[in-house]
Amino acid sequence: MLIRNIKEFLEKTKTRKILALDMGKKKIGLAISDPNHKIVNPLDVLKKDKNYLDNLLLIITDFNIGGILIGLPITNSDKNKMCQMIRDVGKNIDKFLLENNNDIPIFFWDESYTSFEAEDITKDFFKNSKEQNRHIDKFAAKLILDDFFNENLNEKKNY
């Protein structure tokens, strides 16, 4: 279910793992939180192929995911087409999950510039830029989820 209110999303995901998605045209970076929302780990990078929804459902099931946070690059006016594409993919994910008896909350969160930040943070992690590029999206997803928790930490204590 697509959620528009932060408090509602936090209430529905209380003590549940959250999966963050950094959406790209060809790849989706994944990061996951612990149920207490204290620890966030980069998880994987999915290819956005014809099986990505099935693969996403497997991850949601295997990790007992209680909510999905989708990054949306809303601060850059040049990204309007990308924002619409991500919103459409979010709707498709929601529809697919509902068809497969998984009614979990989905919330969009501003992820502007997280890929650049992830690139900067990980530049010393990998042997070369090709290796870094294979993993960058999951670190961007981690930053999205970290940012969401950091922004809503005080808010979270009240739900």
Which SSEs are present, and which pair or pack?
Elements: H1 6-12, E1 17-23, E2 27-33, E3 40-47, H2 52-62, E4 65-72, H3 80-99, E5 106-110, H4 114-122, H5 129-157
Parallel strand pairs: 1-4, 4-5
Antiparallel strand pairs: 1-2, 2-3
How are the strands of the biggest sheet laid out side by side?
3-2-1-4-5
What percentage of amino acids are in beta strands? 15-25%
Profile the largest sheet: 5 strands, mixed
What does the average pLDDT come to?
85
The level of helicity is 40-55%
Q: What is the oligomeric state here?
A: single chain
In CATH, what is the homologous superfamily? YqgF/RNase H-like domain
**Structural class, from secondary structure content?**
alpha/beta
Unreliable stretches, pLDDT < 50, 5 or more residues? none
Q: Categorize the overall geometry.
A: globular
The beta-strand count equals: 5
Number of domains: 1
Which fold name fills CATH's third level, the topology?
Nucleotidyltransferase, domain 5
